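sry for the spam today, last one i promise. struct tokens for design, 93 residues
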């Protein structure tokens, strides 16, 4: 039996061997997700070290109502300067 964090992997499991850095990945994901009601944190593993790939702020499987989607995004404030976007073509008329 293989054990990583609180997850137990049986020797004949169909799941692959957990990465060496699984505990660190869980620690990082827990830290990053503390302020979100739901978020998925994706990682790459490079030289046995976790690298954050992206954070997905909702499942998107249409299981939620529009009100729930509003609740998920109500506290997220994105500050974007459109002039720094390669797609910006100047102010709209």
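last one done:
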């Amino acid at each position: 039996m293989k054990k990583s964090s609180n997850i137990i992997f049986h020797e004949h499991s169909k799941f692959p061997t957990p990465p060496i850095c699984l505990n660190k990945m869980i620690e990082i994901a827990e830290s990053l997700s503390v302020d979100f009601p739901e978020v998925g944190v994706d990682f790459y593993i490079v030289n046995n070290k976790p690298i954050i790939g992206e954070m997905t702020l909702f499942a998107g499987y249409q299981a939620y109502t529009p009100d729930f989607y509003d609740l998920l995004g109500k506290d997220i404030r994105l500050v974007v300067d459109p002039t720094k976007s390669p797609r910006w073509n100047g102010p709209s008329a």
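The two ends are 65 Å apart (CA to CA). ok im logging off now
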